[in-house]
């Protein structure tokens, strides 16, 4: 995780970002600290990467890459404003002893690349290039299933889908093409399908350890669905970081190694 010390909405690269809306850094930091403390209270280990001045979106650490089986695939960002972040994340990955690899095509890390069981669900349509999906399948030696996003409000896969455990996901169908919806239905017959009220507060931008699901507090309906399905929802308010178009999962790069 990277603290939002230099958080701002200085440019708009997704529909959630409005450069005329003021940002309260102290509140963003407080909400981020609550998220970090929540993970620690649940028994997870949190490593903190230093924030870099001039990189206001660096708080969305999920986009830094994908770390799987000791290999770290470094992000290649679509927009120039975020490109220097990959240098900072690659440095951290190297310092932790991971072998870093680059893709030739745009990949925005865990924003679009979500491991579930033995496969990787990979979003495309707004950010990650489908050609990077093929590169990643080659690098990690696992099947990569491409999913096509169609609504600009759900521009990264992790804004429209939560991985809950090795066989269960939750998602918002209107964010996907017909074909991708059919694929999701086929792969995850027991999936939780969320309503638009929860999707439009980025409720699906949540992190699950297989039992406990840390989710954005505003997504009350989703919390009820999670409980019914046997998961334990843990609410954290991320309203300030929503101004950049991200929430809990965006602020969290999970390490699968
Ligand atoms: N402002 C950032 C962007 O548009 C938000 C990234 C959110 N991250 C995520 N994993 N969905 O790139």
Tell me what the structure shows:
This protein has helices spanning 25-41, 85-95, 130-140, 178-187, 196-199, 220-228, and strands at residues 65-68, 71-74, 99-102, 113-116, 119-124, 144-148, 161-165, 168-171, 192-193, 207-208, 212-216, 232-236, 255-256. It is an alpha/beta fold and 257 residues long. The strands form four sheets. The chain has a four-stranded mixed β-sheet, sandwiched between helices. It has a three-stranded mixed β-sheet with strand order 4-5-6, sandwiched between helices. It has a three-stranded mixed β-sheet with strand order 7-8-9, with no helix packed on it. The radius of gyration is 17 Å and the shape is globular. Arginine binds at residues 13-14, 17, 57, 60, 62-63, 82, 111, 156, 158-159, 244-246, 250.
Gyration radius from CA atoms, angstroms: 17 Å
Low-confidence stretches: none
Return the string of H and E elements: HEEHEEEHEEEHEHEEHEE
Cofactors and ligands = arginine
């Amino acid at each position: 995780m990277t603290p939002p010390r230099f958080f701002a909405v200085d440019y708009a690269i997704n529909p959630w970002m409005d450069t005329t809306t003021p940002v309260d850094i102290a509140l963003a930091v407080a909400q981020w600290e609550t998220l970090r403390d929540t993970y620690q209270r649940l028994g997870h280990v949190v490593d903190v990467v230093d924030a870099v001045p001039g990189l206001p979106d660096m708080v969305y650490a999920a986009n830094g890459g994908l770390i799987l089986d000791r290999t770290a695939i470094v992000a290649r960002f679509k927009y120039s404003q975020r490109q220097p972040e990959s240098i900072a994340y690659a440095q951290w990955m190297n310092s932790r002893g991971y072998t870093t690899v680059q893709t030739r095509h745009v990949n925005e890390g865990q924003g679009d690349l979500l491991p579930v069981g033995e496969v990787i669900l990979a979003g495309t349509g707004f950010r990650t290039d489908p050609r990077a999906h093929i590169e990643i399948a080659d690098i990690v030696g696992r099947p990569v299933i491409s999913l096509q996003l169609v609504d600009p409000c759900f521009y990264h896969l992790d804004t429209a889908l939560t991985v809950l455990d090795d066989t269960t996901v939750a998602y918002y169908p209107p964010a996907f093409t017909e074909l991708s919806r059919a694929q999701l239905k086929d792969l995850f017959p027991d999936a939780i399908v969320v309503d638009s009220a929860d999707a439009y507060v980025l409720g699906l931008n949540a992190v699950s350890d297989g039992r406990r699901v840390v989710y954005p507090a505003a997504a009350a309906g989703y919390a009820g669905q999670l409980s019914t399905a046997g998961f334990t929802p843990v609410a954290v308010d991320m309203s300030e970081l929503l101004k950049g178009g991200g929430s809990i999962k965006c602020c969290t790069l999970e390490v699968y190694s």
